[in-house]
Amino acid sequence: MAPPQSPKHIATAMHARLLALLVLGATLTTSAFCDNHDKTVYSLVAPTDGVTPGRPVEIQLAVLNPSPVETSVSLPPTLTARLVGMQKHWKVEVRSGLAAGNHAIAPGGFALVPLAFTLPAKAAGQLVFELDQPVPLRLVLPAAVQPVSPVPEEMSASRAPASMIEQRTAGKRLRNYFADNFAPYEPIYFLYGSQAPAAKFQVSFKYRLPLDDGWLVHKLPQMRGLHLAFTQRSLWDIRGESSPFYDSSYMPELLYQFAAREPDLSGTLTWLGWSGGVQHESNGKNGADSRSMNIAYARTAFALGDLDDWYLLVMPRARTYVGDRFDNPNIADYRGWGDLWLILGRNDGPALSLYGRIGRGFRHGAFQADLTVPTSAFSGSWASYLHIQYWSGYGESLLRYDRRTDSVRAGFSLLR
Description:
By secondary structure, this protein is mainly beta. It folds into two domains: 138 residues, Immunoglobulin-like, CATH 2.60.40; 242 residues, Phospholipase A1 (Outer membrane phospholipase (ompla), Chain C). The chain is built from five helices and 23 strands. The strands form three sheets. It has a twelve-stranded antiparallel barrel. An eight-stranded antiparallel sheet has the order 1-2-3-8-6-5-9-10. Strands 4-7 form a two-stranded antiparallel sheet. Strand 5 and strand 6 form a beta hairpin. The longest helix has 18 residues.
C-alpha cells in the first residue's frame, strides 16, 4: 500500500514552472486576477495531459502573495464552474483540495490548490473552463479526446477501410484491458548475496477485473476492488553449475481491495483500508519435492504520522488454510496463522520494512528486514531503490520450509 502523492509534492515539482508562469504570463493559464486590496494573484494551471470525456480532470489554482505581509486564502469544499464549448456549455461541480478555514501564505510565497471535476461525457474538442470563485478566472483546457464510438452506418465495416476501424478500436481495447487495469502489487526486487542460493528476486502484479465503464461497476461501484493477482518469488543458485533455480513460489490469487475514502494523510492515526482473498502457492515441482497450499486471508493497514513526511505503516494479516496439504502437512507449524508488516519511512526518502511471523506454539518463526533508499537521492535518472534485505528463520523457500536459514542480500527494487 504505497503512500499516495499529495499537493505538497506537486507544488515542489512545479515550483520553477509556476514562478515562470506567474512572472512571464506563461502559456498554461489564460487568466490571472490581482485583488487591489491584498494584491493576491490567482491563476489556473492546466493539466499536462489531454482530457477525456467522462473521466476525472484535475487542474491547479495557483495563489501568489507578492506583498511584503502575510495573506490568507480560503475556498468552500465545492464550487460551481462552467465548461464552454463551440456549441454547448455545461455546469460542473468542482471539488477543492483545500481544507476548511483560512490558510496563510507567507510574503512572497505561493500555494497550489488542486481543483477536481469530471468532464461531461458528451464534451469534446476545445473547452474553456470558467470559474467565479475566489475571483473570475478562465482557462483553455487541452483538447478533449472523445471515447471511441461505434462506426456510423454510412461508414460501416463494408464501406470503411479496415485500417480506420482498427485504429478506432485498438486504443480503447488497450486502455480498458491493460493500461487502466494493470498495476504493481507486492514489492518487486532483485537481490544478490554471498550464501547459496545467492540470488533472490520477486515480481508481482495485479489486474482489476471490472471495467470502469462497464454495467457491473455502474450498478455496483464497489466491484472496482475485485482483482486477480500473481506473485513469483524465486531463489536462484546463480553461482552453481548451470545456474539452476533452487526453488520458486508461484502465487496466483483472487482478492478484493477496499481503500478508505479520502483519508486524512497528516493525521495521527489513519486507516487506509483492507483487503481479503484466496491465494494458491506452489513450487511447481512434482514427486517428493512438490509443495503446495491454499490460504484465505484478510489484511488491513493503518498509518501513524504524516504520509507526506515520516510515517509508520502497520499491516497485520490473518490467514487460514484451505484444502489438503498432503505434500507439506505440517506447514502451518512454520508459517503460522498470521503475519505483520511494519514500515517506517518517508514517501520520497528511505524506508525500513520489518516483517515477522510465528509458527505454532510461538516457535519456528521468521523475521525479514528490508532497507530501501531511492536512487534519486544519488541520481535523478532512475526510478528505483537501492535495497538490502536480511532474512532469519524458517520458510524462506517453500521446498525447505522446515529448515532455518539466515542470509543477507543486496540489490535493487522497482517497487517497495
